[in-house]
């Protein structure tokens, strides 16, 4: 059994390379985590090593106790993941109290999981609960145009959601619950993890002001596609604002309602305000 031949590892590595090619992972920017299925753990568990020490997560994720996650390493470059997986990604086990982790595969030579592990795990904890165990992927990337917008738009869920929805007709269908915005905070700790996971109760996308985005999804395709859609929409908005501060025409609340009906999505009333 070759760990690197497992479908979930191949999908994970492909997503790292795809994200790098989009320009969202300069240097070690961004991180990715995947909550493994029980059968995936069982099929490769014989290759795990339980020698490494337990380490504090820095927060508590009780409903993830004893689960296994594939994660990117801290300080590791997405462009190197496919070239040398064992050095750049690894599998961690969460302990029975949901407060500690240990590396059981990969992250060789003393490498450690991403510094955003608290946010990843707290997001997973919320999504496991609110999606009835469906969501398994949490993705953090430094999406250029979304970041640019956090300097010029008010940092409000209602404003970002509505502006992004208006830029591409597919947006309300791809992220009908909208996007949340977290104000600038110091990354890498419990505080930003708590603030982000609060947004994840309502949304699958959380924007970090002047930093990037976090997305959640059921698999690699859905999660990458979500980040891609949000960033594409942000790019259109940046282009539009570069041409003129005023829209001559746009998609109206009544048209969003029509779209929602045809595509069988429900759009929260709070995003359909009259301007
Ligand atoms: P890591 O290299 O620790 O994953 O950090 C990258 C990053 O984007 C922090 O927000
Ligand atoms: Zn980051």
What's the topology here?
Elements (H helix, E strand, L loop, with lengths): L6 H16 L8 E5 L2 H7 L10 E2 L11 E5 L12 H4 E6 L5 E7 L10 H14 L6 E5 L2 H6 L7 H11 L3 H4 L5 E3 L7 H11 L4 E4 L3 E6 L2 H24 L9 H10 L13
Parallel strand pairs: 7-8
Antiparallel strand pairs: 1-3, 1-6, 2-5, 3-4, 4-5, 6-9, 8-9
The structure holds 1,3-dihydroxyacetonephosphate (13P) and zinc ion.
The site of 1,3-dihydroxyacetonephosphate has 12 residues, from loops.
What does this structure look like?
There is one protein chain. The protein has a nine-stranded mixed beta sheet, with helices on both faces. With about 280 residues, the protein is α+β, with helices and mostly antiparallel strands. The protein has helices spanning about 5-20, 40-45, 85-90, 115-130, 145-150, 155-165, 170-175, 190-200, 220-245, 255-260; strands spanning about 30-35, 55, 70, 90-95, 100-105, 135-140, 180, 205-210, 210-215. The chain has a single domain (about 5-270), classed as 3-Layer(aba) Sandwich (L-fuculose-1-phosphate Aldolase), CATH 3.40.225.10. The model has no long low-confidence stretch (mean pLDDT about 100). It has ten helices and nine strands. α4 (about 115-130) runs parallel beside α8 (about 190-200) and α6 (about 155-165) crosses α9. The structure holds 1,3-dihydroxyacetonephosphate (13P) and zinc ion (ZN).
Features:
275 residues; alpha+beta; L-fuculose-1-phosphate Aldolase; 9-stranded mixed beta sheet; binds 1,3-dihydroxyacetonephosphate; binds zinc ion
